[in-house]
Specification:
Layout: E1 2-5, H1 10-21, H2 28-38, E2 39-46, E3 54-55, H3 57-71, E4 77-84, E5 87-96, E6 99-109, E7 115-123, H4 125-139
Helix pairs in contact: 1-2, 2-3, 3-4
Amino acid sequence: MLKEAMSAPTSTVQGVAAWHTVFEANDEEELLRRLDGVLAEQVVFHSPLMFRPVEGKIGAAMYLRAAGQMLVNEHWRYVRELVDGQDAVLEFSTEVEGVLVNGVDMLRFNDEGKIVDFKVMLRPNKAIETVKAYMARQMG
């Protein structure tokens, strides 16, 4: 993984490191515990599939858990990481149902190293369609 740290407080660097461990959880309970540990109570989650952002830890964790079940597989990897101030941009690559997915996680951290804003962007359009269909099945 390519990393470039500009000028970032220790809390942001630690927050990014904690985020990287979330989907290494061995079971659902541990995954939820890790999500709880990295998300601020008032986190705002911006999905590429939804018109309005999701506000609050519970809703954000629900979407991130479902997305992780689909996206984080044997093809998943972060390919670029930029950290500056309280912001981090993490580019990822994976494959879902034979479709290559390229995306970006844009994260903002508070002074405690918790994520307060989480925005996901995806490409190409076929990837968005595939992810949207999967998430519709998962989220009902």
